[in-house]
Amino acid sequence: MYKGTGASAGIGIGTAVVVEESELVIERREISDIEAEIQRFRSAVDRTIADTERMAQDLASRAGEKEAEIMQGHMLLLADPMLTGEIENAVRNEMVNSETAIENVCNMYAEMFASMGDELMQQRAADMRDIKTRMQRSLMGIQSADIASLPAGSILVARDLTPSMTAGINPANVAGIVTELGGRTSHSAILARALEIPAVVAVTGLLAGVRDGDAIVLDGSSGDVYVNPDEETRKAFAGRRTQLADEKKELERYIGMPSVTRDGIRVEIAANIGRPEDVDKVLQYDGEGIGLFRTEFLFMDREEMPTEDEQLAAYRRVAEAMDGRPVIIRTLDIGGDKEIPYMGLEKDENPFLGYRAIRFCLDRKEDVYKPQLRAILRASAYGNIRIMIPLVTCIEEYRQARALVEEIKGELDSRGIPYKRDIQVGIMVETAAASLIADIFAREVDFFSIGTNDLTQYTMAVDRGNKKVSYLYSAFNPAVLRSIRHIISCAREAGIMVGMCGEAASDPLMVPLLLAFGLNEFSMSASAILRTRRLVTGYSVKELQAVADEAMSFSTAAEIEQYMRKFAGM
Ligand code: PEP
Ligand code: MG
Hints:
It is a single chain. By secondary structure, the chain is of the alpha/beta class. The protein has 3 domains: 22-140, Orthogonal Bundle (Enzyme I, Chain A, domain 2), CATH 1.10.274.10; 154-159 and 176-246, Phosphohistidine domain (Glucose Oxidase, domain 1); 255-568, TIM Barrel. It contains 23 helices and 16 strands. The chain has an 8-stranded mixed β-sheet. It has an 8-stranded parallel barrel with strand order 9-10-11-12-13-14-15-16, surrounded by 5 helices. Helix 1 (34-62) crosses helix 5 (119-140), helix 4 packs antiparallel against helix 5 and helix 14 crosses helix 15. It is globular and about 85 Å long. The protein starts with a strand and ends with a helix. The chain binds phosphoenolpyruvate and magnesium ion. The site of phosphoenolpyruvate has 10 residues, from strand 10 and helix 18. Magnesium ion binds next to helix 18.
């Protein structure tokens, strides 16, 4: 068995097609007719751009707009006058053929990106190498491996897949992808997930062990890959594949069904998103709202802050797509583990206890916070938008944020710009402080959303990303559960909506407890919605009271989890 990194969930069973892009041999040739060579180069660029555009359009229809952006990024690179100008200069000054000029200039950029170290720059380096080879192939008249017309049941095996190769895949014929290089967040992995093709990446020693025509089975979740598996393994994988397909079908029955318990308690099952394009999946899985739009993703992976209008367009797109269903937009939560280089943040000694989220925003009202609040308010004219403030610890923070919202409303009024006048402003309850005074908050705020990812971290004093202390990081700790129960009861007493957008909201062992405590809204990744709806519709809140009482009587997280496991039959 080979072990790699699971990059796209699902079971792949099929026949290996080893894609070996032969290394291009670039010969340096002296040229005499410079202008003719420049023309030759320009036509190759045009052809490559046209090809890329075709791929982008194709991808947009098969996988989605967001995935097509990767190819659109290649088009921008190809059309960048700085890059093409530099290549043309190399042709002119060194009097060499275009292939050589492209090789030198593109390699220089790729190495520069790669040396910057971070993941985004590594990706840029891969993109640069991809377009380099494609321009050279176009010049040399060499066809790329024809991935589009592979026989059905093919498992693509490669050292690495370039984004353009992945984009050319026909999901009807490709049953899986295995690569020796790559990571979960590489563009090819993202595309594989969008095309719903099971994929495993970073499989050491893969190419030495696989030949064209070998039988292959792979598990895109665990990262297990078997080459020429024995009958028993093959059967086990086939069984699991059927099981996954059946489960998917079964869950589809819950599309359009209300999320109501057996005793008639209705809850809302909503989705967490990070980018406007994510609403496509939310609609596909019938999300009843957006319980958390993590807006910091709009600010990441770029060189400067998104403008107010850019933000407006993003928020509006989500509000319109959700068509009247609630959309909770969380204001910027950076600092902590999320850094944004252009914001000029100094390194905090204790980032999770430092200059993060609302603390940062209230300190950067003019250049960061007000433009964001203005964009959200303007977008609220197009749907059912609510505002949510992260990492609040004391009521003054909420009051200041709320005062800013009121100030901007006045400003919009005087400019005659429409917005939702009764827009709700709520908070994430995700610190121990906010939980302890949840009753005080409940008197002033419009709603709560419990962020168990941080609430667990701040209650247990355990860094959510530190493996050495991760044994303490569980929302089943009695301390965290009591906190959750307390927050929900304060909200219910005050008559405000209380949701949860931390990971615990979709934990099947946690859902019965949350129902018993009286949670109104459960927000999670879109793919967990239907599974959670099935769960909710099977329970009676009345019957769950005794279960919750019993669970809360135990002394440790392990006991509670074990009890819930037994109760849920898992
Ligand atoms: C949380 O803390 O539970 C939460 C949903 O926010 P984030 O994971 O973005 O900190
Ligand atoms: Mg949080």
